[in-house]
Specification:
3-stranded mixed sheet; ARM-type_fold; 4 domains; alpha+beta
Amino acid sequence: MVRDMSVKVRVEAFNALGKIETVSEYILLQTLSKKASSITKEMNFPGQYSETLFRIPAESAVLAFLHGLEDEFDVVRVSACRALQSLAIHSAGFSNMVVNLLMGILNDDSMAVKLQALDTLHHMTLFRLLKVQQPHLHMFLGILLDSHSLIRCRARKVLKLTELPSLGMFKMCVDGLIRELELYPQDEAEVFSALFMIGQNHREFLVSLINEASQMIEPSSGGKLGYDNVRKASYLVLATSAPVSMKHQTCSVPPRMFSYAVTLLGRISHSFADIVDQRTLLAYLSCCSRFTFVSASEFFKMEEHRLLPHQNNKMEEHLEEGDVQLTQRREISEYDIWRKLLPKEAESSLLDFQVEHNKERNCVNIILQVVIDIWPSLKLGLINEVTCTLRSLKAELGTRSNHNHRGELVFALQYIDALEQLGYLWHHLVFSKEFYFHEWGKLECSLKKLDRCLRDMRYKLVGLTKEDNFLILELIIANGILTLCNIEACANKTTLKKLHSVMSCIEHICGEGSTESSNFVVEVQKSLSEIDTTSSSILDNPYLLLKSLEHFTPRKVVSSGNLKYMEAELHFQGNEFQNPLPFISRLPVGLSLDIKLHNISSESRLWIKMSCEEKPTQFVFLDLHEIEGDDEVRKFTFVVPFYQIPKVNCFSLKICIVLECISDGDQLFRSCGGPKHEVVHLCEDKEVYFSGQVR
């Protein structure tokens, strides 16, 4: 089918190839070969279609991807590159051949093809399968000079995680980034960030390069620093990522380099904005400039004990897996992700220094970046690996308990929770596209969990920026689209109305000019417009909105350090199952509650929710204008009546405090008949027990 006359058939054929879970490595290698061997012509593999078994000739795999990558239509070439992105993780031998092909694809005339090729290379770096040779690097560095900024950005993203085997290749990479900066000064922040990452990923090469170039960086005889020179400034950024020992107060590069870097403080801090603030960076540079200088060999001997003990044999194990006849998808483990995106950053003394100054915020920012970087694995269908990693990140956040950063920790935990549920739904609804035949029990449970999590993020966090709100609204849209996979939801039209409401909020945020819309939002707008302008309902074309989910990507978020979390504490002393409260049937009871509120303003609409089996839920309004205390902490005692007394000898009552979810556009009202909007729980249910006589 990859040679079919129809373009659509060829595209779908490569899309299907990319979803293969288990495949013979021999067949994989044949898809990239130019000629079938005599052995291949005689080989057949069992296949199955419906209930009929038949034999598939191995020869049919020959030239499969070569045809796709040389297709005259760019959509077919993009589809072939995307399939390679998924299949390259099956074996190391196959991935090496893929790299050779993709380096040629980087010269493609189509921008979409080049972007997909770069995405495939980046995905391979996450799995440590990108083996770069010197001819490859020459070709790749040419992409850094491309006229399209998006191409240059994707290329830098690959370089940040690429492992360079030699000092010469490291120097080539640094020179390539410097040439880009000379040609495109507007890329300075991103180029400096890439230099910093490459430097800390190749510490020994970095020390050698900086020591060689130290004389060139020195001020002129007249005392002028002259750091407007692009190359000198780039070397100073590299020096910032050099290893130092805080314990021994030693540097592996001349300490004066850190003093010179202070002159570029504004430019460097702008490049490192997502990992360190300017004040901490200044303190770090000032501190390191006072350290002593030791030779690189002495320094690395001193620091050997800091290296991970199991860091060396991981790749060899993966290479041995390539000899197995049948290979399956490689698991992207927690160690792989953290080694690429956490430990190498954590080994940098700059980030260690940042952790000491602001441990919780730095931890949150790094973990949120990990979440963004593993999202492409989820889109490839690696649900088990991604879910495992997300839960590991949540466990790491769960060990943090700094009250001053409670809001940031809760935000990160809820964000990861939301992506975990979204990933589960994505896997079962988007990949299978058979939602009419699913058992909706587990899926409905995940939809409800996701909806509850997003409501908590939107309404219980104080101090959200417009970018944060935009991120949450995008997740709400994704949840709504997945909800519409249920026929009942399509027929109800409530979810569709909610989507329109959320889109209006997004348009309002974008209209203020501080936040740009995303491709995902644009595609959803197109789909909603198509639904509105046609007489047919969404039931006639349920895939229309679902297709827009292919454009969804989690937005990058950086903790501002100003978030506060709204929560409540509810206590009722002297009551338990063996010591119930007395009551008289048909008469109301009064409950004295000790309440403590955190970060809740007097404008918030709080309710005490009381529920009893077989009785309607009763709400009592809490008017915070009449209760003393400030918004940060408010502590008081409140007597609440309960009227729905059942005609029984004993019963239990569940009590909690809820917040009414009022959006910015909703009108505030003072009715006490119960909340008119959805609510979120501010505390866990407390159970009160009663015992009495029926009259």
